[in-house]
Design a protein that fits this description.
Layout (H helix, E strand, L loop, with lengths): L3 H6 L7 E4 L3 E5 L9 E5 L11 H21 L4 E5 L10 E6 L16 H13 L1
Helix pairs in contact: 2-3
């Protein structure tokens, strides 16, 4: 059965897309730690990030770097944190999270909530950055 990320990639489930290439897609996390929390996902469905082969693995960071640059240009923060957890969806992915302190990366804390129109407006600002 296809992962939720594969279903997003195939257009079966909508997302707040930030960027897309032939091999990767980035979209806002709908259960974010804070504003601007995004996911970077390889289009190839593999469970663990380190199961990606050489080119797919090495290509994800330059793609993520461009997305992170755009997020930082739009969302006030000290830096963009990166996390690979891999427990919530069986499809390799990277979290990009605007942070000001270590606790901003605490995945056990209460998640931020935004309306669909707020998500779309943020995604548009990031895409245009």
């Amino acid at each position: 059965m296809a992962s939720i990320f594969t279903r997003i990639i195939q257009g079966e489930i909508p997302c707040y897309k930030l960027a897309e290439s032939a091999d990767y897609i980035s979209f806002l996390d709908v259960s974010p730690l804070r504003e601007g929390h995004a996911l970077v996902v390889p289009k190839l469905e593999v469970d663990h990030l380190f199961d990606l082969e050489g080119a797919e693995l090495t290509g994800i960071l330059p793609f993520a770097k461009e997305v992170a640059r755009k997020i930082k240009a739009v969302v006030p923060c000290t830096r963009i944190g990166i996390s690979v957890v891999g427990l919530e969806v069986p499809h390799a992915h990277i979290h990009l999270i605007p942070i000001d302190r270590m606790s901003d990366m605490d995945f056990t804390r209460t998640r931020a909530t935004f309306t669909p129109s707020e998500f779309e407006a943020l995604a548009e600002r990031i895409r245009q950055a």
